[in-house]
Description:
Helix content is about 55%, strand content about 5%. The chain has a domain at about 245-495: P-loop containing nucleotide triphosphate hydrolases (Rossmann fold, 3-Layer(aba) Sandwich). It contains 25 helices and five strands.
Amino acid sequence: MTPEAQARAALARGDLPAAAAAAKALAQGRPESPAGFFLMGMVAAEAGQIAKAVPLVQAAVARGPQAEHLAQLARLLILLRREGEAGEAAHAAMGLAPRDALTLDTIGCVLTRLGDHEASLAPFTAAVAAEPDNLEYRYNLAAASGFTGRVDDARAHYEAILAADPGNARAHYALAILARQTVQANHVPRLERALAGADRPEDALRIRYALAKELEDIGDASGAFRYLSAANAAQKQALGYDFEQDAAMFDALEALFGEGGDALAAGDGYPDPAPIFVVGMPRTGTTLTDRILSSHRDVGSAGELQAMPLAVKQAARTASRTVIDPETIRASGAIDPMVIGKAYMARASHQRPKGAARFVDKLPANFLYTGHIVRALPQARIVCLRRNPMDTVWSNYKNLFSSQSAYYAYSYDLMDTARYYLRFDRLMALWDHLWPGRVLQLSYEELVADQEGQTRRLLDHCGLEWDAACLSFHENSAAVATPSAAQVRRKLNSEGICRWKTHAQGMDEVRAFFEAQGILTD
């Protein structure tokens, strides 16, 4: 067995010391060859030493670029949030016409992380063609197909996964949210069988969410609520979430910005008018608004960027491992707004659509960063979606967000979600008090009732000329990677208004809480 084969075999079985020794010997014996440096980089990456791995893989690429090496470099760069370099490496890897499935799938995953779902289809398709029985590769292709509106292709791939692995919870959930189910055509019996056989808590979580979604689609409100309650109670317990975690964050924001701004560094910010921030609680029409705006001839969608949270975190230089926390918020006040503005634009440049003068960043959680945005990007426009608070709570509670995301840990409990909404509402009132009119408060219900009038108001606030294409947002062919993908490909309708009333009994406590706080629920 050659030294390279020895190193790869040791890596495959998880023997990192043996792999490191073989890779080092290979690099020392053949310093002109890329293989040893690449494998040393892979050993470092497997050990969690990503920053150490990158220069080793770069050394391999410098000795003669190979698709496998470039693809893995792109993957590592994404982990370090170096999106621009990652994109260059991924495209360079694809340009070398790779044939092995892992390299192709890796390229597709990097492009997906960069929000380029359309471009990810080619490597994902080739990966599945090379290894049709690999269910991970097929799942990635299915997801990309769904994001880009190829619903029939996505459905076929998910069904193929389930034919091979009937308990595959990710595929079950993806199929449930891919389209609206009907009494005549749904997967409820199959999902119930899958739930009975689910061994892992994360699988049970996804399948219960899938059941809740399909049961709600077919009119079984009590069944949907029952499955949601079980799923969310288990997930909240698993996370160990306490609302005080989020309350402390809101307290820190209000303290930093709400006491006359004494703790805020002076500065004018970065005067770039390109960004349009669409913010708000999730599931309130942010994706819809993004589609309306990106249907305009001068606007492209960059998707849900992490650029602002990362720009603030990077500049704050706090030691905490979370992107946003009270410590980071307090430290951010001392940062020159110009530094944050430039850092944001540098990060956003890697994912904003080419050729569009303006771009939409529709990360809902940017409502937390409104104060930073106003100061760092004084010419940026900000739109906050508002939806009936009861519908907001229900739609958050019934949506399965990324279980690893710290932004949405509140959503596994109805009352936690109601408390979160209260603090969101209070924070938006603070921003409006500090900068009157700077944030457009756009009502989802009013947009549905008066599409053209509210669309004109939206475009005017964003400094955009009228474009009738914005009324035909459902014809927008751009990819959508959110749970709203199916809805925004249909014409605007009122189906989502007052949906909470279907579960009114289960939401009595939420309604009483809001009424006690003076928040209107009708």
